[in-house]
Design a protein that fits this description.
Elements: H1 7-18, H2 22-27, H3 30-50, E1 59-63, E2 71-73, E3 78-87, E4 96-100, E5 112-116, E6 119-123, E7 135-141, E8 148-150, E9 156-158, E10 164-166, E11 173-174, E12 187-190, E13 197-205, E14 210-213, E15 222-224, E16 226-229, H4 234-251, H5 256-278
Antiparallel strand pairs: 1-7, 2-6, 3-4, 3-7, 5-6, 8-11, 8-16, 9-10, 9-15, 10-14, 12-13, 12-16, 13-14
């Protein structure tokens, strides 16, 4: 692991180790590797390990319906929509009071709601919805964002409540993503002080570069070096590093034998992180739940 504790810098060091070549070091700078190799590799690995993960971060996005308006733009990070529900106006304990169930697109009564590109569309169009409780869209992230790292020269800032964090304007490494809510579901890692803290991002305002956390930081309010990247586990770091080595090995026209070794290492790494994330919740194990809202025969 890199001495800074950075996920990105650790991946870069391991990639350079796998592709030990002086020409490689001269041609591919750290910033280039983050922008064009680590970013797509992260999405590749994320999509594979998140399908069966026991610990997906569930995110909420609120939509206020407008009479006769069919479509509403979703956050850029939406991976899977799990439900479209209404919460209670008061004393909301996290349980929905109403749900819109989607139907087939060719259903006689319309699909209720359907996904079209980056939009959630309602058919039949909403009518008589002025003043009603907004709908909450519960979803998981697709991992498509721009990770970045900031050292003590380009710091971010923890807000007074500990629940907000403002990103630096210019990251030391990587890019600042300018899409609305793109960092929701990702991890902010505070990298200074004697203890590193990791917090899940609940929402992100691109206009103000401000994240709102699921849980507050305990670190000191004010400026800190930080990183936005997946949770730092050895399995995830290794899987991303090998995925990067495979991509760069293709560009460098590595030998078939070397690419074969990279592939074998990648299979092992992706199996490790996949097993870790798929078996975290072992109290109930893997089974089909019967007491769900979708079971017409279930009774309390």
């Amino acid at each position: 692991m890199d001495s800074t504790g950075s996920f990105l810098k650790t991946v870069i060091e391991r990639v350079r180790g796998y592709l030990d070549d002086s020409d490689f070091d001269a041609k591919y700078q750290d910033q280039f590797i983050v922008q064009h190799v680590i970013m797509p590799a992260l999405v590749d690995v994320w999509s594979r390990v998140s399908l069966n993960a026991d610990n997906p971060v569930m995110l909420d996005y609120t939509v206020t319906l407008v009479n006769d308006q069919e479509c509403y733009v979703l956050p850029s990070c939406v991976g899977e929509v799990h439900e479209v529900v209404q919460m209670a106006d008061t004393n909301n304990n996290g349980q929905p009071v109403t749900e819109m169930i989607p139907r087939h697109r060719m259903s006689v009564g319309g699909p209720t709601w359907a996904l079209e590109g980056n939009m959630l569309c309602f058919r039949p169009f909403p009518i008589g919805v002025t003043g009603i409780t907004p709908y909450t869209i519960r979803y998981t992230s697709n991992g498509d964002m721009s990770p970045h790292y900031c050292d003590n020269l380009n710091m971010g800032s923890i807000g007074v409540s500990g629940l907000t964090f403002v990103f630096a304007v210019t990251p030391t490494l990587g890019l600042l993503d300018k899409r609305e809510n793109c960092y929701a579901g990702q991890i902010i890692r505070i990298l200074d002080g004697t203890v590193f803290e990791e917090r899940v991002i609940a929402s992100y305002s691109a206009a103000t570069r401000t994240c709102t956390m699921k849980r507050p930081f305990t670190s000191t309010v004010g400026n800190h070096s930080y990183e936005v990247a997946p949770a730092r586990s050895q399995g995830m770091v290794e899987a991303v590093a090998i995925a990067c080595a495979l991509k760069l090995g293709t560009w460098r026209k590595c030998s078939q034998a070397q690419m074969g070794m990279f592939t074998q290492q990648y299979r092992s790494a992706i199996k490790t992180i996949g097993d870790n994330m798929a078996n975290m919740q072992m109290r109930t194990g893997k089974s089909w739940a019967k007491d769900t809202r979708d079971n017409p025969n279930w009774r309390p």
